[in-house]
Amino acid sequence: MPQTDLGGLSNSADVNDLRSLCIDLAVSAASKAAEGRAQRAQLETETKSSLTDLVTEFDRAAENFIRERLSSQRPQDGIVGEEGLDVPNTSGLTWIIDPIDGTTNFVFGLPAWGCSVAVTQGNTILAGAVHLPVLRETYSAASGRGASINGTELISSQSTSLQTALVATGFAYNSQRRSQQGALVAKLLPQVRDIRRSGSAAYDLCCVAAGRVDAYYEHGLSIWDIAAGVLIAREAGATVEFTPESAVTDITLVASATPIFKSLRSVVIEE
Ligand code: LIP
Questions:
Q1: Which residues face 138 on adjacent strands?
Q2: Is 108 helix (H, G, I), strand (E, B) or coil?
Q3: pLDDT value at position 10?
C-alpha cells in the first residue's frame, strides 16, 4: 500500500486534522461503551458468523455514534464499519470503523478491547486512532507524521532474531480455520521466544508499534480490525504487509520489526 501519495491531501494540516478527528471519535465511542459496560453485571449478546462471534448493543451503539458524527462533520466521506452498511463517498475519503475490537474481551470483562477508527484515500491510510479505555491508552498516527501513545512518540522493536522474538497472533471464529491456525502456532512456537494472544488485532498492532511485541501475524482478519493499527505500526517503524490490500474480509497480515520480517513471513505465509 503506497504510503507517500496523499493525492489531494498534500497539506499535512489536513492529515493532522483527520488524525485529531480519529482520536476524538475513538475516545468518545469507546468511553461510552466502557461506561455502559460498567453498569451491566451481565451483557446480552447475539452471535454473527459462528457461536463464538459475538456482538452487543454497545458495539452497535458505538458505531452508530461514530456514523452520526461523521454524517454531520464529514457528509461527503464514505464509511465502512463492522456493524453497519457501507456508505459511498463523493470526497475520495472513506472511514473504516471497528466500534469495539476485542468484543469477546469486552463481554468477558477483560481489558484488551478498544475502538479503532481510520480514514483512507483509495488504498492509502491517511490517519488512524485506537482507544482502549480500560488500559487508558490512545494510539494514533497520521501518514508521514509518526505515531504516538497518549501523545508520546512510538518506536517499534528492531529485533534481529526470530528465535528471541515475542510474537502475537489471533484466531478466527471458524472452527475449521482455527484448527489450521493451531497447527501453524505449534509449528512456529519452537522457533520464537513465545506467543501472545490478546484477542484484539487493533491492540496487537499497537503493541508492535510500541515494541511490546516484536511481531504480530493473523489470517482471516477484516479491514476494520487493522486499518488504524497498520498505520500506527508503520509510522512507528515496523514493516507491515497485508493481503489482499483492497479486501474487506479474509485478510492475512504480518507485522514485525523489519530485520525479522522476511523470516517470520516465510514461516506463517504459505507461498
Ligand atoms: C477480533 C480480532 C482478533 C481476532 C478475533 C476477532 P472482533 O475482532 O481483533 O484479532 O483474533 O478472532 O476477530 O471480532 O473482536 O472485532
A1: 131
A2: helix
A3: 45
Q: Which triple of cell numbers denotes residue 95?
A: 472511514
Domains of the chain, residue spans: 6-153, 162-268
Ligand 1 interacting residues, C-beta cut-off 6 A: 82, 98, 101-103, 170-173, 199-201, 218, 225
In which residue ranges of the chain is pLDDT below 70? 1-13
> Is 46 annotated as catalytic?
no
* CATH of the structural domain 162-268, one choice from 3.30.70.360, 2.40.50.140, 3.40.190.80, 3.30.450.20: 3.40.190.80
Q: Write down the pTM of the prediction.
A: 0.95
Name the residue among 60, 204, 214, 64 with its Cα closest to residue 139.
204
Q: Regarding beta strands 166-169 and 215-221, do their DSSP bridges make them parallel or antiparallel, or are they unpaired? A: parallel
Q: What is the Å distance from ligand 1's center to 12 Cα?
A: 32
pLDDT of residue 8: 52
Nearest CA to ligand 1 atom 11: 170
Closest CA to 156 of 103, 108, 83, 210: 210
User: 57-73 vs 12-38: helix axis angle to the nearest 10?
Assistant: 150
pLDDT score at 13: 55
Q: Is the peptide bond before 244 cis (omega within 30 degrees of 0)?
A: yes
Confidence (pLDDT) at 2: 42
Grid cell listed for 66:
461514530
CATH number of 6-153: 3.30.540.10
